[in-house]
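Hey,

Quick one before I head out. I ran the complex with flavin-adenine dinucleotide overnight. Inputs first:
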Amino acid sequence: MIHKTEENIYLPKIATIKDICIENSQIKTFILEFNDQKFNKSFSYNPGQFLMVSVPHHGEAPISFSSTPTRPGAVYLSIRKAGKLTGAMHELAKGAAIGLRGPYGKPFPMEDLKGSNLLFVAGGIGLAPLRSVINYCLDKRAEYGEITVLYGSRAPSDIAFAADIDSWKKQGVSCSLTVDVAEDGWDGPVGLVTTLLDNLQSDNSNTTAIVCGPSLMIRFVINKLTAMGFSDETIITTLERHMKCGVGICRHCHMDNKLVCDDGPVFSVADLRGLDIAELGA
Ligand SMILES: Cc1cc2nc3c(=O)[nH]c(=O)nc-3n(C[C@H](O)[C@H](O)[C@H](O)COP(=O)(O)OP(=O)(O)OC[C@H]3O[C@@H](n4cnc5c(N)ncnc54)[C@H](O)[C@@H]3O)c2cc1C
Ligand code: FES
């Protein structure tokens, strides 16, 4: 006879898609509630953490919260169609059920960031986890300093989270957008997100930079921030690696002596210096 001593950590909880917001041709935001309403009410997480998302027959993938825990009752997952699991998610309609397990991973150090100015630098879907932090800070406005968002997209039609960006601007956030390639009607900057750093007017003392995007973008942004005088302790980034367990057991997300799922996905550059990883130019 098998005695069940503890909950199976790999067993997902069932959640229902309550709504879907189309961010662009590749990204949708899914608004989800756990079917167990008591669990849904008490569920908590922190910005920067992630869930393992599963769709029957299509496996699992890690996805960051794009909602803030300051607005409980539903979780938002913003998902870019990249492959098997994320492609299957994009086929689902309102009312469909999926599996979620978590929250996992180390979050952004929201307590330590109190009183600092925050400079967010994002590329593409990288704005999803930062949306969680930005809305968290706006909900606790008095606790954080000036907020600046620099966001790079491939083309104007790829700009995601447009409604959020409009709302942030109305709340006093300085938002600058750039695109790699212009399209008709675009009169904003063209160039990599690092070019927006060249035009920053503000004083960077007492500022922490928070970076999220593709690994090459992270590398160029870290180099630029370092050249601008940011110390390794004041640059925070999130990293992505292919995951299996999400909880520090399988070592699939291994990176030198660190695991992205358990030691991260949020790291300061000080945590990463010396590691042989693409994001630092190795
Ligand atoms: C902590 C964390 C948070 C994340 N948050 C988000 C988020 O908020 N939103 C979002 O859209 N994405 C997010 N991602 C990325 C997402 O998990 C990946 O895009 C995931 O691989 C998609 O799964 P899939 O089954 O759809 O793709 P897959 O079918 O696994 O394929 C995706 C791509 O990766 C390649 N690939 C697959 N397996 C491997 C492997 N073992 N080695 C190398 N290449 C491989 C495939 O060839 C394909 O090009 C996050 C990742 C991490 C680690
Ligand atoms: S995903 Fe298994 S150890 Fe990180």
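The chain has a mean pLDDT of 94.

Talk tomorrow,
K.
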